[in-house]
Amino acid sequence: MIYTEKVMDHFQNPRNVGVIKDADGIGEVGNPVCGDMMTFYIKVKDNRLTDVKFQTFGCGAAIAVSSMVSEMAMGKTLDQAMAITNDKVAEMLGGLPKNKLHCSNLGADALHKAIEDYQEKQRPGAKEAAPAAAKSAEEQEGEAACCCPYCEGPLEGMEKVCSCHHCNIELEECPECGKYTNKAEDTCVSCGAKLHK
Amino acid sequence: MRRVYFDHIAATPLQPEALQAMFPFLKERFGNAQSLHSDGQAVLVAVDEARQQVARLINAPESEVYFTSSGSESNNFAIKGLALANRNRGSHLVLSAVEHLSVLNSAKSLEKLGITSTLVRVDKTGMLHPEDVEKAITKETTLVSVMLANSEVGTIEPVSEIAKICKTRNVLFHTDAVAAVGNIPVDVRTLGVDALSLAGDQFYGPKGSAALFLKKGVRILPFIDGGVQEGGRRGGTENVAGIVGLGKAAEIAQVKMAERSKKAKILRDRLIDQLPNTVEHVMLTGHREARLPHHASFCIEFIEGEGMLLSLDMKGIAASSGSACTSKALKASHVLLAMGLDHATAQGSLVFSLIEDNTAEDIGYLLEALPPIIERLRKMSPLYTKYLEKKGK
Asked: Least packed by Cβ within 10 Å: which of A63, B9, B20, B144?
């Protein structure tokens, strides 16, 4: 089995699945291109998370991560919840396969986004606006690909990709198609555009 | 727990007769087929017999069958070997967008050597249109490669029509028939191909044993430089046990194919017809009629394939998916995307490919187990919630 018992438990019996209709904060992350989308809903009272719920579109790891994050955040102060890190989530699940670590990033990100959404709404003059929605799939598809085009290892979790940490090829974004390509080559591997004109 | 195996496209169980035939070559008949002594010559006889068995399955002369280690190797051998050997004639390839990665990535490697390729689009059933291939052929084109059947969506491509076009345009034609050979009738003469890849693990032969058919007189660069094995085109001591197992599996496939495929087709049709009755928002992927007899593939909307595979496995059911999450590369299947599916839909990919042991009860068990799994995952899915909200409005 590729997952730990803990991951499988949270996948089979996820805690806190659902929607909070009158949520104080909502956080959406992810896109279907890389596989996962998560939405976190929170209720806040006296600076504390009184309820956390989530919905996840994604693999077993993504579902387990969301469940674990919701459990870790429940009842915590906002500061404590903001301090939940991706590493801690993965650790609490007994580890995740290397190419699934990006799922744990999404989980904590979605929670943090929901808290930020709440804080934004608390600000004086904040309008009863819709929560900061995730980018549409089309927008995201235009962004750089999430895998190394050479070894196909995932490139997520890196702020700005300079090289693939699996095969060590130096990468750059093609100015034409926006996908990652080998810096040493003259043409983009994805669209064939001339590089370094 | 009950185990039901629906992952033919990943691997088939080894035919017991093939295993029996292999044993002596893992034990007392260990000689090298290239040796002059009787220990070697006895083994050479077995290799030659296997070559005849494989040749008969595809109606080829035995001298046109070359043993390799996998379908991927056969594809690499054909694409790289033919493109490089014919470089003086041109440096352009035409491939379908839904080829196996061993074809697409071979072409990608050739790009670094200055040999470019054009990918021909498919329609929403995964079917290629021969006139699009014709349009893609240029004066520089030396080779066209289009698969016979697609393992992810089951669609059978109009290969003989494409081969005709290639012949009139004086371009070589290779077909990756790995998913097809042993499962549907394949005749290299009526297909009119110059080269064809096949693999034993797709028709109850051993893994690590495959072959490339190459028409006499077609120039190809050797794939492994070495000795005289495989006519000097693929060096290295023969994997004799594997070759013998492949030969036996080919012989049995030829006899049993019609019966196997008739039975599989009935079960497959039951699955294709009944699954949409038990679950909403399920679409068949691939062509409804022109498809492999043992192949049923779907996209289940609003949820992702890996979650379904894990849940099915807990119920004892083995299947596969082209979702991004199930691939190590975290990329959705290029086949489904080439068919025009969006990423979210492609994520819901599920493939059930039947083996000969599957029964009507197995299909019934699947049709019972799958709907609650889908329902559970949909309840967790933000995409499904959004869909329901939209519908309610």
From this structure: B20
Instruction: Give exposure, B211-225, as e/b (b: 16+ Cβ within 10 Å).
Output: bbbbbeebebeebbe
- Please check whether residue A38 touches B, CB under 8 A: yes
- Fold held by A5-139: Sufe protein. Chain: A (3.90.1010)
Q: Which of A19, A37, A63 sits opposite B383 (nearest CB)?
A: A37
Question: Which residues of A are less than 8 Å from B323 in CB distance?
Answer: 35, 59
Q: Where are the domains of chain A?
A: 5-139, 144-197
- Same domain? For B249 and B369 the reply is no
User: Looking at the structure, do residues B213 and B268 belong to the same domain, yes or no?
Assistant: no
Distance from the B378 Cα atom to the nearest Cα atom in chain A, whole angstroms: 8
Q: Are residues B225 and B277 in the same domain?
A: no
**Domain at B29, CATH number:** 3.40.640.10
> ipTM of the predicted structure?
0.85
Active-site choice (B113, B310, B325, B380): B325
Asked if B305 contacts B348 with a C-beta cutoff of 8 angstroms, the reply is yes
Q: Which pTM was predicted? A: 0.86
- Both tokens assigned to B293: 């007899």
Q: Which of B304, B330, B379 sits opposite A99 (nearest CB)?
A: B330
The domain total for chain B is 2
**Chain A contact set for B116 (CB, 8 A):** 192
Clarify whether A34 is annotated catalytic: yes
B248 & B266 share domain: no
How far apart (Å, rounded) are the C-alpha atoms in residues A56 and B385? 10
CB A47 within 8 A of CB A141: no
Picking from B222, B253, B284, the residue at the C-terminal end of a domain is B253
What's the rounded Cα separation, in Å, for the pair A5 and B197? 41
CA of B347: which chain A residue's CA is closest?
A35
- Per residue in B264-318, pLDDT (tens digit) is 999 999 999 999 999 999 999 999 999 999 999 999 999 999 999 999 999 999 9
Q: Hey, is the C-beta of A96 within 8 angstroms of any chain B C-beta?
A: no
For B319-360, how does the pLDDT look when each residue is reduced to its tens digit (9 = 90+)? 999 877 666 666 788 999 999 999 889 999 999 999 999 999
Give how far A62 is from chain B: nearest CA, Å. Answer: 9
Domain residues for the domain of B237 are 16-253
Helix (H) or strand (E) segment spanning residue A192: none
Residues of B in contact with A59 (CB under 8 A): 304, 306-307, 323, 325-326
Residues of chain B with pLDDT under 50: none
The SS3 assignment for A3 reads: coil
Q: Are residues B307 and B186 in the same domain?
A: no
Catalytic residue status for A167 = no
Contact residues on chain A for B325, CB-CB shorter than 8 A: 35-36, 58-59, 61-62
